[in-house]
């Protein structure tokens, strides 16, 4: 990556995103965040320059810099991604840690956060703007749609489908072949042995629907 990166968001995954770009010798120009109390502060010597909707900085994106959206909340993440597409006509770059393994046979969209020791197996199809926390394992021929978040240490077995906006907590195991529906949530440490419906929340071993 030849251009430096502006990171939208200065909380949550923003600090590890900076580490990822550093690990790949990519210069980070600065952060933007909606929280005015962070403006003028620094994260590991990189300044928080201003607001995520500050045109003075946004106009640099696409011309002089790339962008990465480091926001955990999927709704606000989607808002910022749509803003970049509409106003700057560009997609955020992927942030892939040097110690992650992505199969040469896997496909990736745009703007994904892939932290250290994540494995993405052969034939897997990853959408855009997903978050893969440290040590998550995505086995072969898994299909993950946009804006999905996978917690640290979770194991997604072969031929699982995870639909848009689903949230998988830390330490979850999802057995082969099941589908996690759009907007569904799987609690930390759960073992999922059956498909989960749209917007359902499940938890436990085996995972059961929360009432």
UniProtKB/TrEMBL annotation:
Matches recorded under Pfam families: Hexapep
GO molecular function: acyltransferase activity
PROSITE patterns listed in its UniProt record: HEXAPEP_TRANSFERASES
Protein keywords: Acyltransferase, Repeat, Transferase
Family in the record: Belongs to the transferase hexapeptide repeat family.
Protein name: Sugar O-acyltransferase (Sialic acid O-acetyltransferase NeuD family)
Protein source organism: Algoriphagus aquaeductus
Taxon lineage: Bacteria, Pseudomonadati, Bacteroidota, Cytophagia, Cytophagales
């Amino acid at each position: 990556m030849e251009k430096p990166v502006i990171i939208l968001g200065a909380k949550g995954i923003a600090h590890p995103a900076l580490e990822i770009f550093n690990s790949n010798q990519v210069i980070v120009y600065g952060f933007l965040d909606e929280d005015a109390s962070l403006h003028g502060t620094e994260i590991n010597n990189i300044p928080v320059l201003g607001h995520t909707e500050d045109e003075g900085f946004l106009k640099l994106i696409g011309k002089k810099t790339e962008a990465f959206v480091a926001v955990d909340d999927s709704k606000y993440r989607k808002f910022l991604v749509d803003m970049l597409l509409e106003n700057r006509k560009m997609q955020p770059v992927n942030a892939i840690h040097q110690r992650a393994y992505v199969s040469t046979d896997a496909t990736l969209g745009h703007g994904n956060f892939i932290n250290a020791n994540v494995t993405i197996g052969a034939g897997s199809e990853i959408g855009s703007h997903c978050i893969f926390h440290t040590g998550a394992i995505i086995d072969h021929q898994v299909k993950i749609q946009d804006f999905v978040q996978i917690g640290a240490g979770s194991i997604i077995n072969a031929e699982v489908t995870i639909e848009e906006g689903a949230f998988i907590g830390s330490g979850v195991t999802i057995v082969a072949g099941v589908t996690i529906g759009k907007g569904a949530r799987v609690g930390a440490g759960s073992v999922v042995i059956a498909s989960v419906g749209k917007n359902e929340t499940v938890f436990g071993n085996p995972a059961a629907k929360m009432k």
